[in-house]
Design brief:
GO terms for molecular function: phenylethanolamine N-methyltransferase activity. Belongs to the class I-like SAM-binding methyltransferase superfamily. NNMT/PNMT/TEMT family. Pfam families: NNMT_PNMT_TEMT (PF01234). With about 270 residues, the chain is of the alpha/beta class. Helices cover about 35% and strands about 25% of the residues. It has eight helices and nine strands. The strands form two sheets. It has a seven-stranded mixed beta sheet with strand order 3-2-1-4-5-9-8, sandwiched between helices. Helix 5 packs across helix 6 and helix 7 packs across helix 8. The longest helix is centred in the N-terminal third of the chain and has 16 residues. Bound molecules: S-adenosylmethionine. The site of S-adenosylmethionine (SAM) has 21 residues, from loops.
Length: about 270
């Protein structure tokens, strides 16, 4: 009981930091050059897009429902997957982020220009970058919902958001380690995610390595669980996933732009048995 109370307090303390999250600043810090320089293969965003592209295209991950957990204000993480699923569900804890996503999906407006991202993913797929509008239309047509989510809840989504059998694939990027107070809470959150996935479904998990904080606005410093590769593997295993692939990207010094202390990025492909 005592332990449960402590855990609840620690989770609530992390949630309190999120009151200051500014989608526009977050996008500027993480999704503009040098971190999103499409002329460089050693830039973070092209590396992530390439991992996702390979998982969906070369490994043939496909199905009916793709769910992205903790989408934030970003769309890059479903730009490959949207071609392989009939339905894509986005989600975030904060209304301000859900509004940002809905602005792009429903009104075609956004604080952020996703065009270079769409062009880059078209090129990865062997299409002309000029087809980016076709991809944008595809993404808008398959995103059916932007749900509230809380990964610390044993039922992270509102009731009846998903079919009882679960989603065919889950994506989650930079969410669990940046909303959990410690490693055991990170592992529990992974267990909660597993409940959203059908047996045999895939989890594509992207996250930060060795990070202790990130800035979510000029004065908002959010604590992060500093993970290493071994902890990612053991948390996946403890939450019942079979790890199929773990790739690691190490940041070059010029990617450290003063908005966090991240050392690397992992991409894990796992399967729920
Ligand atoms: C570091 S951002 C990651 C955003 C995006 N997925 C990306 O790749 O950049 C972490 C996100 O987790 C969301 N979040 C905060 N608390 C959460 C919770 N308890 N459950 C799920 N998501 C949460 C935040 O609103 C934020 O959008």
């Amino acid at each position: 009981m005592e332990r449960e109370n402590r855990r609840e307090k620690a989770v609530a303390a992390v949630a309190a930091f999120y009151r200051g999250f500014d989608p526009k600043e977050y996008l500027k810090y993480n999704y503009t050059p040098p971190r999103a320089d499409f002329s460089r293969s050693d830039s973070i965003v092209p590396w992530k897009l390439n991992c996702l592209h390979k998982a969906f295209n070369e490994d043939s991950i496909k199905g009916d429902i793709l769910v992205d957990v903790g989408s934030g204000p970003t769309l890059y993480q479903v730009m490959s997957g949207c071609e392989h699923f009939n339905r894509v569900i986005l989600s975030d804890f904060l209304e301000v982020n859900r509004n940002e996503l809905n602005k792009w999906i429903k009104d075609g407006e956004s604080n952020f220009d996703w065009t270079p991202y769409l062009q880059h993913v078209c090129k990865l797929e062997g299409r002309s970058s000029s087809e980016w509008q076709v991809k944008a239309a595809r993404l808008r047509s398959v995103v059916t919902d932007v749900f509230p989510v809380n990964v610390h809840d044993p039922n992270p989504f509102p009731p009846r958001s998903l079919p009882a059998s679960g989603a065919d694939c889950l994506v989650s990027s930079f969410c669990l380690e940046s909303v959990s107070p410690d490693i055991s809470s990170f592992t529990d959150a992974l267990c909660n995610l597993s409940s959203l996935l059908r047996n045999g479904g895939h989890l594509l998990l992207i996250g930060a390595l060795g990070e202790s904080f990130y800035m979510a606005a000029p004065d908002v410093r959010i604590p992060v669980v500093p993970l290493d590769e071994a902890q990612v593997c053991s948390s996946l295993s403890a939450s019942g996933f079979d790890l199929l692939q773990l790739s690691v990207y190490r940041l070059t010094p010029d990617m450290l732009v003063g908005v966090d202390d991240v050392k690397g990025v992992f991409f894990a492909k796992a399967r729920k048995p």
